Each structure stands twice: as structure tokens, then as C-alpha cells.
Amino acid sequence: MLKSFNSIRLMSIVFIATLVTNGFIIKDALAGVGDSPLVTKQKWSNTKVTYDLGSDLSRGFKNAVDHAGVMVWNGVSSLEFEYSGTSFNDWGMRELDNPAVTQIYSTDNKIIEVNTYFNELEQWNTAILADPDPDELDALTVAIHEFGHWFRLRDTYDDMYSDAMMYGYIDYGEKKVKLSYEDIDAAQTMYP
Ligand SMILES: [Zn+2]
Questions:
Q1: Is the pLDDT of residue 127 over 70?
Q2: Ligand 1 centroid – CA 55 distance (Å)
């Protein structure tokens, strides 16, 4: 959902690209941010971040998002995600050119709001434990990755980080649900 914040820049980020054309290289923009390619300067001012789940999400998607936030990311750093029906932070479905998109609204390096949408044009596996079919994207994998963007972690397209959840490519049929050292280190660097 687009909300009008007059002074807030909308940064639209496209992630988990299946196409190399989305693999823009942003390493040069990282100077001074630290030695992790995943870390940025934009942060939440509060370490309790609430999210709500759009009514257009199936039960399976809702479970995947909750699992990603609470079971995977909570406890890793001081940033905690909490479900809230009254939050402005939404997860939903959209017609997209990519598997998912996360929009980050920020001002003065402070994150104001984040929205994430899954591509409703794709075939999805929403089961937490089952692997996706070869023509399906895995909702839990994508949700963990996109929640990484809620921290304001950045994508990396460097193959040396291919084990990281913030690696910016996903394949159909791929399930990857474990944070790597790089993911954890970046989250703890931003939210000690
Ligand atoms: Zn991404």
C-alpha cells in the first residue's frame, strides 16, 4: 500500500532476482558503511518492529512470514519482529516482475515503514517444511530474505555469499532457510 509521506523518499528495491539483469552491483556505494557488504546506514530507531499481514495472503503465506520473522530472525540481534494487526507495516501480494519486492520508506537514515509483496503471478510453495516443486518458488525462503531487508540489510550478488540469505538470487525449486554467518554478522552489526 502506498501511503503519502511528503518528505519521505520511496526507495523501491527489487530482490531475489531470478534474472541476472536485476543484479545491479552496488559495492561502490558501500564505502564507509563497514566491512560487510550487507550493512547499510538506514536503521529503525526502535528495536521492536511490528508488521501486519494483508488479507490477500493465504494461510500458508502468513505462516511462512511469521516463521521467517519470529523463528528465524528474532533472537539474532536486538531487533525483534512482532505481529500486529494495527501496524502500518504490511505484507501482501502484487503482480510483480520479480519474485518479491520490499519497499523501504525512510528519512534521515531512519526507517519509517516497510512493505513487502510476493509476486502473485508465480507458483509458490508455502509449506514450511516441504521443498518446492521445480516450478515453484519457496515462500519461506523469500520471506526470510525479505525480512532481511526489513533490517535494511542489502542484497549481495557476489557468489562468495551464495550461502547467505541475503544473496540476491533464487532458483525455482530452491529452499534455503538457514541464516549464514554473514547474515547474522550484518544483523548484529546494525542492531547490536
Ligand atoms: Zn533482496
A1: yes
A2: 23
CA of 148 to the centre of ligand 1 (A): 8
**Residue-wise pLDDT tens digits, 47-81:** 999 999 998 999 999 999 999 999 999 999 999 99
Give Cβ neighbours of residue 166 (< 8 Å, ≥ 6 apart). 38, 145, 148, 153, 154, 155, 156, 182, 183, 186
Separation of 169 CA from ligand 1 center, angstroms?
A: 8
Distance CA 63, CA 53 (A): 10
| DSSP class of 131 | P
Distance 149 CA to ligand 1 centre (A): 6
More confident residue, 88 or 115: 115
- The reported pTM is 0.83
Residue 178 CA, distance from chain mean position: 14
Residue 50, amino acid: T
Q: How many CB atoms lie within 10 A of CB 59?
A: 9
9-18+36-190 has which fold?
Answer: Collagenase (Catalytic Domain) (3.40.390)
